[in-house]
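User: Can you predict the 3D structure for this chain?
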Amino acid sequence: MVDVFIIGTGMVGYVQLTIEAQQSLDRSEVAYVVDAQKIVKDHIRDEYDVHVVDLTTEYTEKEDRRTTYELMARKVLDDAGTRDNPVALALYGHPMVFVSPSRMVAERARERGLDVEIKPGISAIDCVYADIEFDPARNGVHMFEATDLLLREWELNPDVPVMLWQIGAVETIRHTTGDSDPQRFERFKRYLRQFYPDDHTIQLLQTATYPIAESQRVEIPLAELETIASTIDAGAHILYIPPVRDRPIQNRELLDQVRSKEHIETITR
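Assistant: Here is the predicted structure, written as structure tokens:
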């Protein structure tokens, strides 16, 4: 028997709840929800025979987010396995994409001998791909969390598109609703300037989070990044950096083979 379902609620209200997520909620007795949208919590409360616990109330101003995630995970784990039916942990987006409480619950639940099922959800990156008609198969994609990019000093390839997550939380692991000083993004901009010219156009992307809302795209030269600090503060954005140039084919011999009927016969049976 499943003790814990870990599911994603998607990004656009509750309309991106998958059938798997809905079935998990149908089977659950309690749903612990990490989603700031009241419409999502109300929908789960109204449509499913489940008690809803809002975990977003655990956030505390200037608290280390890891401490908050530990508290969230502990609440779910202490309840799981004590009931006749499973409990669900429902998180916005995809439950394994840039999310910590879900990993904590999954790992520690198994240590306690609890059975866990994780169901995929629609993440912000899925929505952004649709918003800007982006195909990662064309030129590949680099993807990093903004603060981790600075801490590990990942080297960026300007021929490859880049998606940078959580730019609005750069340089801190603490939760805050305070406004950013524009100089907050100076170090981040300096790092990017190692790989891109000042006039390279970058895009701040915010996917729609309500069915009647529209996705946002703000284009700006890299040199002016800090001038949109207030826009960055206003949402959960992904910073998209298009490639400086299209990388040409390097291996012409292989290209000929890729197109060759004779070659396919040498690599298949």
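The mean pLDDT is 95. The two ends are 44 Å apart (CA to CA).
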